[in-house]
């Protein structure tokens, strides 16, 4: 399949007259305008307006209808189409042509500065046009639909954070503005607000935010007094941070192999690795799916060991009806931008139902302070800043909807790959996944990756080398004692994934994948 048959999402930017016609049901133009607006209501395409446009729409409606009716129509309109953001220097940047309308030029400037694929909808024949700017009359758009106006889409994003940002831009601006206004950039009110919201979401009694997912793991191990001479049992198939924090404390990572179909730590392989030096077990909930936490907790209970769930990829997933991060002694997650709940920088959080442990973590993240300038512990500078908390709070408003979308998209991938006979990571029936990555298995990874790249489809490998084979860690552990992880590292391949991935994009991906696999 050639890439020129695929199209990127379109954004309709409405001129004042079209919205007035649509809402006032004014003459034949109103019917066309209303039909175009209905495509936005039905979710077929995005709709946008410049903030000054909404005021102009209300002013004109008020002359045509009773004020309460005009206000109700504008209120409903604001739930259907989204505002273009304004920074404050737009007028300075405008180059207004002779005879041009300021309101239209400002709308054009905001849209072209912010949207990747804008189409201006107007009934004004004098609306400014250029060779690059696409403008359409509402009648033509109503008759032809949006398809002829979409741009060819040559390369898909691996994760479309820009589309997500457009959807939550008003909340982001509001939250960031609040931080800039109060000026409490460290441990401001957003920090405690986010901690309470996250605790409520997971059901954990305590949440402590941290500077990153790595910092969350490190602080958790420190709170459990893991140090030199100790051992921590973990998975060899994860991001390096999982092992890094163990070694930074002078402890030794001990690896239990992974399950061949989920890539999560094999709970049945853990007990054989326990020794008199073992101080904790740290499973990773890989690719968005929790490990077998009931079995892991049972092993830990027999030896009176704490369990730290590294849930950097699985926030929002469930295991036997309970949220990931609230499945063991401690749960840690990451707000790295590409995570299911990500910020716009580093951030992380620690979850526990043990009040004393939570208090120790709070002290450790501020250099071991029990009160200002009284340091009763050796700690770190591990706070999550107010601005990142503000970003995550904005994303949290949409998060449950995104989890549902991710699961629907993951299920669609499952069906398409199963129909094509392509092996993939399996999901267990007693747990859910948030599909932080969608990962398949292939024996011809390099060839498949190259073919997908030619088709404009990005891929990634999570992960190409087990942790016990990493050069910095080989001396600390057995390099050949995890054969399943070593095998998976040669075969895993992750496809584009995100809450806003469209069905037609998935179809394109799987068709190109199937062709590559069957070459």
Key features of this structure:
single chain; 519 residues; alpha/beta; Rossmann fold; Aspartate Aminotransferase, domain 2; Aspartate Aminotransferase, domain 1; 3 domains; five-stranded parallel beta sheet; four-stranded mixed beta sheet; 17 helices; 42% helix; globular; disordered N terminus
Tell me about this structure.
There is one protein chain. With 519 residues, the chain is of the alpha/beta class. It folds into three domains: 3-149, Rossmann fold, CATH 3.40.50; 163-392, Aspartate Aminotransferase, domain 2; 398-517, Aspartate Aminotransferase, domain 1 (Alpha-Beta Complex), CATH 3.90.1150.10. 42% of the residues lie in helices and 13% in strands. The chain contains 17 helices and 18 strands. The strands form six sheets. The chain has a five-stranded parallel sheet with strand order 3-2-1-4-5. It has a four-stranded mixed sheet with strand order 6-14-13-10, with helices on both faces. Strands 8-7-9 form a three-stranded parallel sheet, with helices on one face. 44% of the residues are buried. Mean pLDDT is 93; it is low at 1-5.
What is the compact description of this entry?
This protein has 17 helices and 18 strands.
pLDDT averaged residue by residue: 93
The biggest beta sheet, please?
A: 5 strands, parallel
Give the proportion of residues in helices: 40-55%
**Distance linking N and C termini:** 14 Å
Overall strand count: 18
Beta-strand content estimate: 5-15%
Instruction: Quickly count the helices.
Output: 17
Which value, in Å, is the CA radius of gyration? Answer: 26 Å
Examine the secondary-structure arrangement and name the CATH architecture of the largest domain.
3-Layer(aba) Sandwich
Domain count, please report it: 3
Main structural class = alpha/beta
Considering the protein shown, what is the CATH homologous superfamily of the largest domain? Type I PLP-dependent aspartate aminotransferase-like (Major domain)
Q: What coarse outline follows from CA principal-axis ratios?
A: globular
Q: Could you please say which CATH topology of the largest domain applies here?
A: Aspartate Aminotransferase, domain 2
Query: Strand sequence of the main sheet, in spatial order?
Result: 3-2-1-4-5
CATH class of the largest domain: Alpha Beta
């Amino acid at each position: 399949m050639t890439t020129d048959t695929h199209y990127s999402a379109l954004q309709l930017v409405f001129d004042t007259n079209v919205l007035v016609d649509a809402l006032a049901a004014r003459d034949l133009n109103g019917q066309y305008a209303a039909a175009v607006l209905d495509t936005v209501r039905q979710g077929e395409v995005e709709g946008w307006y410049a903030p000054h446009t909404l005021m102009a729409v209300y002013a004109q409606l008020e002359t045509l209808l009773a004020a309460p009716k005009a206000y109700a129509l504008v209120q409903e309109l604001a739930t259907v189409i989204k505002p273009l953001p304004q920074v404050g220097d737009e007028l300075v940047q405008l180059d207004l042509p002779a005879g041009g309308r300021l309101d239209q030029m400002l709308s054009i400037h905001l849209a072209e500065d912010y949207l990747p694929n804008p189409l201006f909808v107007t009934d004004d024949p004098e609306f400014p046009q250029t060779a690059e700017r696409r403008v359409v009359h509402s009648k033509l758009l109503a008759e032809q639909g949006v398809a002829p106006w979409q741009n060819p889409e040559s390369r898909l994003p691996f994760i479309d954070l820009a589309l997500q940002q457009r959807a939550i831009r008003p909340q982001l601006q509001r939250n960031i503005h609040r931080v800039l206004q109060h000026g409490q950039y460290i441990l401001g009110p957003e920090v405690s607000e986010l901690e309470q919201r996250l605790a409520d979401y997971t059901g954990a009694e305590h949440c402590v935010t941290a500077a990153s997912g790595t910092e969350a793991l490190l602080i958790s191990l420190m709170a459990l007094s893991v140090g030199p001479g100790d051992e921590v049992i973990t998975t060899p198939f994860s991001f390096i941070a999982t092992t890094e924090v163990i070694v930074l404390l002078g402890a030794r990572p001990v690896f239990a192999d992974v399950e061949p179909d989920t890539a999560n730590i094999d709970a049945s392989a853990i007990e054989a690795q326990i020794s008199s030096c073992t101080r904790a077990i740290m499973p990773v909930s890989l690719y968005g799916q929790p490990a077998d936490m009931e079995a892991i907790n049972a092993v830990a209970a027999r030896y009176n060991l704490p369990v730290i769930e590294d849930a950097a990829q699985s926030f929002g997933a469930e295991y036997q009806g309970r949220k990931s991060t609230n499945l063991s002694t401690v749960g840690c997650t990451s707000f790295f931008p590409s995570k299911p709940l990500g910020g716009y920088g580093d951030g992380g959080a620690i979850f526990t139902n043990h009040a004393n442990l939570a208090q120790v973590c709070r002290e450790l993240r501020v250099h071991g302070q029990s009160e200002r300038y009284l340091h009763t512990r050796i700690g770190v500078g591990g706070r999550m800043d107010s601005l990142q908390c503000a970003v995550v709070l904005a994303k949290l408003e949409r998060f449950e909807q995104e989890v549902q979308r991710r699961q629907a998209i993951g299920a669609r991938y499952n069906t398409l790959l199963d129909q094509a006979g392509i092996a993939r990571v399996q999901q267990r029936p007693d747990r859910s996944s948030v599909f932080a990555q969608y990962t398949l298995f292939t024996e011809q990874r390099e060839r498949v990756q190259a073919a997908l790249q030619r088709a404009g489809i990005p891929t990634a490998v999570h992960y190409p080398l087990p942790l016990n084979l990493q050069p910095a860690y080989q001396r600390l552990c057995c390099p050949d004692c995890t054969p399943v992880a070593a095998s998976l590292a040669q075969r895993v391949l992750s496809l584009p994934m995100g809450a806003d991935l469209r069905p037609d994009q998935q179809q394109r991906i799987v068709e190109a994948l199937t062709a590559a696999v069957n070459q």
